[in-house]
Design brief:
mainly alpha, 2 helices, ArfA, Lipoyl synthase
Length: 35
C-alpha cells in the first residue's frame, strides 16, 4: 500500500522473527503502520 515496488520483500521482512518481537507490543503506532 505504501510502495507497490516490492510488497513481497516487505512482507518477508515482517514475517521474520525480527518483526515478531516488535508485534508483541500493543499495535498503537509502531504496529499500526504495518497494516
Amino acid at each position: 500500500m505504501s510502495k507497490p515496488k516490492r510488497p513481497n520483500k516487505a512482507k518477508s521482512i515482517i514475517a521474520q522473527p525480527l518483526f515478531r518481537s516488535r508485534q508483541e507490543q500493543p499495535a498503537k503506532g509502531k504496529g499500526s503502520y504495518r497494516r
